[in-house]
Every structure is written in C-alpha cells, then in structure tokens.
Write a structure and sequence with these properties.
The structure is a single chain. This protein is α/β, with parallel strands linked by helices. The protein has nine helices and twelve strands. It has a five-stranded mixed beta sheet, with helices on one face. A four-stranded mixed beta sheet has the order 4-5-9-10. Helix 1 links the parallel strand 1 and strand 2. The radius of gyration is 18 Å and the shape is globular.
Length: about 280
C-alpha cells in the first residue's frame, strides 16, 4: 500500500490518467491525496470529477479556490463565471447535483498522524498549529454541509479582507479569513497579514512580504505538509527539508507537468502536460 499526493489537476484529465498509470495506482490498495483545484482552467474538469468520484474511498481531497468557485456558481443565484472559467460542462451535466454534493462534503485541511503528513490547498498561517488548522477548516466544512448556511457563505466568501487572523473574528469575515488562508495564501508579512496580489516566484515579490512557510514562528512546522496552488514556486530538496513543506503544483494547466509525491518515501513522479493554456 502506498499513498500518493498529486498536485493541482485543474481539469487536466489526460495527464491525470497518465500519471495514475506511471505510479501503477491500485485503487484496492493504494491511496490518493488530491491537494485541491480539481477543476477549472483546463479542458476536462467533468472527466476529472467523474474519475475522482469513481475512485471512492481511495481518494482524500481538500478543496481549493477553484473548487469553491464552482460551488458558488452552482449554488448562488446570479453568481457570474469568470472569463477564463471552463466549468460549463460540469454545470450542464446530468451529474451536476452529485458532483456538487460530493465537493460540499470535502474538507479544507487533512491530517494523517500515522503518515506524519498534512494536506492543504494553499497553506497554513504561522499562528495556527495543526490542531487549530483542523478546527478552523472544520468551521468552513460544517458550513458547506449545511443547506441553509452554504449559500450564504459561498455568496460572501469573495474578497481580500480581513487580511490577518484574529480570534474574535465572527460570521462571514471569520469564514472568509479561514478560506483565504487555506485556499489562496502565498505571501504574508511578518505579522501574518495576507498579500493576495503577489502571485509570482519568491524572487519576484515586493519587499516586505515572504512565502508563508518561511515564517520563523510557524506553529505547524513540525508536521510535513503537501500543498498546491503556487505553480511558480520551485523549492529544492534542501528547502523542502528545511521548511518541511512539499509544493506539488507544477503548472500542468499552464504547460508544465502533473506531479505526484509518494508520502512513504518522498519519491516524486511526473508526466508532462499534453497541452497548454496561456497563463493569466
């Protein structure tokens, strides 16, 4: 039995199928961790969701910002798609209710103490330990699972404020802050304040903001973490070991590669992208 964590699929079904062949994935024995952003921007989001759902209990997934955007489009009256969205096939599919119901049940953070690994789409703020990350993620998951509350949350989740955690945050601001940390974060300042405008590689960031995982006082640093979301981030093996993080978004949808990490021995596998769309 092996556990493979795979980076952002974003509708890249052909590459997903090819990578499963490369790792010789056995759904009866092996386990698959998906770091979020299963859908959008790529050409085959519907096929990705069909495959993921067919794999059943072999899959553990966390939600990414694109997955949440799909939920909003499907659940919030008047919510408009973005210009580069490629979600029409899912929204028009007969399976749409099943796909939306499945996504609404997925967490924003996962931790396996036996493996010693956690998984999130974007990152964990320095102020939270693993227990706190799980608890805060559960707040959002419980809201999504509630038919009455889910629509209200999805309608109010868009926005960049508040930009720093406070324990006394309440209501939509609290849920938005949790969501932005776990599904959108790349850079923070020394106080943990989010900078959501910076999206490039660390050597291109403006002065005063830093990759979230480099915070000196990061409370969850003792737990190995796999994450996606940041296709321009390239860390060396020594940097991964230093920060105890394993970024897996290698930009498949932009013409890069789709990457898997076998958690038991930290071995990487990848397949090249079959096509490319222009980066935003």
């Amino acid at each position: 039995m092996a556990t493979y964590a795979i980076g952002d699929l974003q509708g890249c079904f052909e590459e997903f199928a090819a990578l499963l062949e490369v790792i010789d994935f056995d759904e009866q024995q092996d386990r698959l961790w998906l770091v979020g952003d299963l859908v959008n921007r790529g050409p085959d989001s519907l096929e990705v969701m069909r495959k993921v759902m067919r794999l059943g209990d072999a899959v553990t997934a966390v939600l990414g910002n694109h997955d949440l955007h799909l939920l909003a489009l499907a659940s919030v009256p008047g919510q408009q798609p973005r210009r580069k969205d490629t979600l029409d096939k899912i929204l028009a599919a007969d399976e749409r209710p099943d796909i939306i119901a499945w996504l609404r049940k997925q967490p924003l953070f996962h931790y396996d103490p036996d493996l010693g690994f956690a998984m999130v789409h974007a990152g964990v703020p320095a102020a939270w330990n693993v227990r706190e990350a799980l608890a805060h993620a559960q707040e959002v998951q419980a809201t999504l699972a509630d038919d009455r509350k889910a629509g209200e949350f999805l309608a109010s989740m868009y926005g960049d404020k508040p930009d720093v955690w406070r324990d006394n945050l309440r209501g939509s601001e609290r849920l938005r802050m949790i969501t932005n940390y776990l599904t959108r974060m790349r850079y923070c300042d020394v106080e943990g304040r989010l900078d959501l405008k910076e999206k490039g590689a660390p050597d291109s960031a403006e002065f005063g903001v830093y990759p979230w995982f480099t915070a000196a006082n990061r409370h969850a640093a003792k737990t190995a973490l796999v994450f996606g979301h940041w296709s321009t981030l390239e860390l060396s093996a020594s940097e991964c070991a230093e920060y105890n993080v394993y970024p897996l978004d290698t930009g498949c949808v932009w013409g890069g590669a789709l990457t898997a990490l076998r958690l038991e021995d930290r071995q990487y596998f990848s397949v090249p992208a079959r096509s490319q769309i222009p980066p935003s």
